[in-house]
Amino acid sequence: MSGKDYFVHESSYIDEDVEIGAGTRIWHFCHIQKGARIGENCSLGQNVNVSNNVRVGKGCKLQNNVSLYEGVELEDYVFCGPSCVFTNDLTPRAKYPKGRAGYQKTLVREGASIGANATVVCGHTIGKWALIGSGAVVTKNVPDYALMLGVPAVVKGWVCECGLQLRFDKGEACCPACGRRYRKLQPDRIEKID
Question: Which pTM value belongs to this model?
Answer without folding.
Answer: 0.96
